[in-house]
Amino acid sequence: MTIKNLIDSHTHAGMIPYDGFIAMAANGINKAVSCSIVISARYAESYFDHFRAISGFYRQLAAAVGVDLYTAVGVHPAGIPGDWARVIDKLPEFLKEETVVGIGEVGMNNASPLEKEVLKAQLEVARDNNVPVIIHTPKENRQTIVGIMLDMAAGVGINPGLLVIDHAHLDIIGQINEFGAVPGLTIRKQNLTPGVLVDNLELFINGMLNSDYSNIMPNDPAGMIEAVKHMQQENVDANIINEMAGGRAAKLYGIS
């Protein structure tokens, strides 16, 4: 069965080469959500330019090859500028744009006081605007830091169903499910593999597939397709595959 309306629920358009967009379209990924990241950003203007580039130039570039690109805006923990509060103040304005679908990618790498302050401010914007928020999870000390972030989300009053905890794996999926958040399923060797996904499908069944493509590590702009193919080979119910590969993202982000 052909899976229709495939959506990569988390990628980074500014890091995708032209051939990467071609590969996405060729594999049936016709929609994608590009999360924001400006590594080592020093000034708020870096993010403002980044938001405009993704929703303008890169959206047009993707559309030219058959990919409808949407944007999530926010301050990534890998690049918190000194004047980060200026970015937070402008987020509601960017959220009014038709193709901006949420806050992200935000989160923490080491749970420093600065990271906590920046994340809390962005969770409050997501709550006040009733939009999804995509949470980055670190490579180390994951359970502890995810626990801190979930406590923060609960304290702010985020609707659990609008909270996406990305890079979900066996170590944190229990925390995600208990909170009622949406697991973001990043498919690649250094994250979640198709085999682990299918072998533990009951844990990941409420998740959304993504590639989290970037040019700073080995990965595939159409990586989520490997999970779709593996689920089909293992005779996973087509309705489950449809939800994980696009249906859930379409509903969460309001993508028609």
Strand segment tally: 8
Q: What is the oligomeric state here?
A: single chain
Q: What can be said about the biggest beta sheet? A: 8 strands, parallel
CATH T-level fold name: TIM Barrel
| Helix proportion | 40-55%
How much beta, percentage-wise? 15-25%
**Coarse structural class:** alpha/beta
Helices and strands, with pairings:
Elements: E1 6-11, H1 18-26, E2 29-34, H2 44-64, E3 68-73, H3 84-95, E4 100-107, H4 113-129, E5 133-136, H5 142-156, E6 163-165, H6 173-179, E7 182-186, H7 194-199, H8 201-204, E8 208-210, H9 224-233, H10 238-253
How would you sum up this structure, described in words?
One of its GO terms (molecular function) is hydrolase activity, acting on ester bonds. Pfam families: TatD_DNase. InterPro entries: Metal_Hydrolase, TatD-like, UCP005295. This protein is α/β, with parallel strands linked by helices. It has a single domain (about 5-255), classed as TIM Barrel (Alpha-Beta Barrel). About 45% of the residues lie in helices and about 15% in strands. It contains 10 helices and 8 strands. It has helices at about 20-25, 45-65, 85-95, 115-130, 140-155, 175-180, 195-200, 200-205, 225-235, 240-255, and strands at about 5-10, 30-35, 70-75, 100-105, 135, 165, 180-185, 210. An 8-stranded parallel sheet has the order 1-2-3-4-5-6-7-8. The longest helix has 21 residues, at about 45-65. It is globular. The two termini are about 20 Å apart. The model has no long low-confidence stretch (mean pLDDT about 95).
